[in-house]
Every structure is written in C-alpha cells, then in structure tokens.
Amino acid sequence: MTTHLELGLDTFGDVTRGGDGRVLPQAQVLRDVVEEAVLADELGIDFIGLGEHHRPDFAISAPEVVLAAIAGRTTRIRLGSSVTVLSTDDPVRVFERFATLDAVSGGRAEVILGRGSFTESFPLFGYRLEEYATLFEEKLELFAALLEHDRTGEPVTWRGTTRPPLVAQRVFPRTEHGALKTWIGVGGSPESVVRAARYGLPLMLAIIGGDPRRFAPYVELYHRALAQRGLPPLPVGVHSPGYVAETDARAREEFWPPYREMRDRIGAERGWPSITPAEFEREIEAGSLYVGSPETVARKIAATARALGLARFDLKYSAGPLAHPLLLRCIELYGREVVPRVRAILAEPAR
Prior knowledge:
about 45% helix; 12 strands; TIM Barrel; alpha/beta; eight-stranded parallel beta barrel
C-alpha cells in the first residue's frame, strides 16, 4: 500500500519550437529547462529529473551541469538524472559529479543509473555495443563499491575488464551524510529488476506504453529478491510521459501533434510503424500516457501508485517540440492541482 508518494517531473530537454514555429537553439532550450525547474521548486514539486542524450532532438547531454545551475536558483526540490548512462561513463567521475552536486545543493542530489534506451553514447565515447551488458554490470559493481566507500570511508579496491583497477583508492568529495541516493532505472526485464535488488538500490521503472499494472509482477519480484537477501523493502518509482491542460480535450489537442512527431521520429529509427490516433487514445485511456485535465491525470497517477505500491511518480512532461509556455502551464497545473489531488485520493480508503 502506498503510504507517501513523492511526485516529480522529468525532461530530456526536448528541443522545442518558438512562437514563430522555428526550432530553438539547444542553448535556449537548456535555459528554458532551468526556468521550468525553478517553477517546479516554487510549486513544491518533490523532484526534477534530467535525462542524458547525445542527439540533435534533445538538448541535455550533461545533466549534472544543468542540475547545478538549477541548484543555485532553488531551495527544496530534489535534483537527479533520469537516467545517467553508466555504461558509457566512468563510475568514479559520475560519483564525484553527483557528490559535488549534493554538496552545492545542500543534500538534494539523486542519481538514477541505467543502460539507456538510446545507444548514441557508445560510438561517441569509444565503447563497443557488443559489450553492452558487461559494461553496465561491471560499472554498476564499481559504483556500488563507491557508495560503500562514501558510507564507511574505507578505501576502494576493485578489478574488472572494462576499465583499469582501483587499489585502495579514496574518492572525493564524499557526501556529508554518507548516502548518495541512487536508483536503478529499469525498462522491464526481470534480470534488471533482480540486479537492483542484488545491490540493495531503489527501483525506477520506465513505463512508456501499455497498462502500467502489467509491471506488478516485476515489483513483486523485486521485493521478493530483496527479502531473499535479508534486505528491507526499498522504494519503487515510475517514470511515464504525460501532459496536463485545463480540460481533457485541450490536453489531447495540444499534446498530440508534438508527441506524434517525436514518437514517429524515434520509431522510424527503430523500425516501428507510425503511431495512429487510435493508439494514442488507447494509451491515454488504459495505457501509460497521463494526458488530460488535472482531475483525469491525478486519478490515473493515484491508480498506478496504488497498483504498484509506489514511493515516487515522475511525469515526463516534455514531448518533442511542445512549446516552452505550454510546458510551464503544464507544470503549474501539475503542482497546483494534480499533486494535491493525488495526495487527497491516496488518503481515501481504497475501494
């Protein structure tokens, strides 16, 4: 049963269009993301997550840098990645960057580690796709050792096949509280769920299509794997796309064209057919698109939270070229109307 649900937002810094219909420079999109996060902080939203991509249609390639800019203009919102592609980064540097973010933000940093659903970082940073699984497994093992070092202060000794070994090394800065909050981002494979439990790390499920209730067996598997290792229950979160407007009709009308553009662009790269209006409607009605009025979106979030026993729900509020003013209005409605409504629904007895 969900006792307390944190409600956050995610964005990949989708490149948007201005009022004249022209695509905005990535630099402007990054400045807009900072403004969006500042508004989220003012509204009391719990978390802002920034995704890492290395492509022309997404502006954020260095989430920690943008999060540091946000940290300097906010006071309470938690700051994290969604996700950090650990396979093509160095675990030591990832830890150092997020420990630094944690320091300058007063303990508000989180990192969500994942393999990522895009592969452009592999050739960019000189990694082989053939080592996709090995890279993540070894680097996650090292990152877990760094978290233990942060907790205890004991030097790190580690050896693998994908990077040079560490022998009695110390990493700086350590966090002041000795616990950098770290999630494992999972797309839905049992092996990934069990891996998160093996390392004793919270689970973040990326649910971007289909009935979210179909992930209930994965949540059960995660809790069972934790119990088998003698570990207490840990948080489970969900990241899903959505959009809030004043009415259901307006939300669908505004969200559909940019969402279709983004979905078909990515789909063409992966061999997917073009999305149809009927498929779009099905995802809103019974799938994993949280699109509609504040009441509609709140009820759907609350239903997912109850079904999966969530501790966090993050709405991926940006979608392709959906304009910055519309994103700001979506955040406003989410913070002022959706968040309190979700909490009120969850406070009611389950029917």
